[in-house]
Amino acid sequence: MQKLDFTSELTETHKKEMEKHGNFNQDNIKEHYDELCSNYEAIYLRAGFHDPQKCAELTNECFTLLGKDKDQVKVVDLGCGTGLVGKYLHDFGFRDIVGIDASKGMLTECEASKPGVHSELIELFLGKPDTYPETLRDRFDVVTASGILADNHLDNSVFEEFLLTLKQGGLAVFATRTQYLTEYGYGEYMKRLETEGKWKLVKEITFNRYDQLEEVVGRFKKTEAKAFVYQ
């Protein structure tokens, strides 16, 4: 598949590729992203997908709550895709970054395009806390997730995987469309976990996603999003 340029103006070729990004569900999500991995960044960065950058910035801002030096902080990026969060974190000086994704194609693209950024890449289908690997439990200081709380992606079970992944006092840093907080019940579940004493809100920000688009293309349109830090 020919790689597209995400630094150029939005072309008809871009638009046709973008229209492919809404045609999937949980039954074929791995195959969907395997097919789209080579042009993932060309599409999302061109559209204005700021979530990975926001998650990295929030991690860099709040990691001092852990009481550790930056190069000692263990980070795992769930649904890492082509490794954008990892790249931004590495640019900030984080060095122990693990990426997890269900798509082998995405992981291959991640390793090829960002060599030396991740200490480990793991192929794993998320959203199954009952069978979440023991090797990942209670292991990380920070868990990030910039693109998995989304349409046709993961339900509230992934929040339980956040908690399983983190060490005591660890940080969960994630982003989602504002509308999904109510549409998919994410917001209610997040508040329930806080009420139960499982985590507390540290910071919340609001930003615009896909703000580089002047028109609706497939499922892509300007929309409000939020990013959160919980401890």
From TrEMBL:
Domain called Methyltransferase type: residue spans: 76-174
Species, as recorded: Strombidium rassoulzadegani
Protein name according to UniProt: Methyltransferase type 11 domain-containing protein
Record-linked PANTHER family: METHYLTRANSFERASE (PTHR43591), RHODANESE DOMAIN-CONTAINING PROTEIN (PTHR43591:SF110)
A GO term for molecular function: S-adenosylmethionine-dependent methyltransferase activity
InterPro entries, A to Z: Methyltransf_11, SAM-dependent_MTases_sf
Pfam families: Methyltransf_11
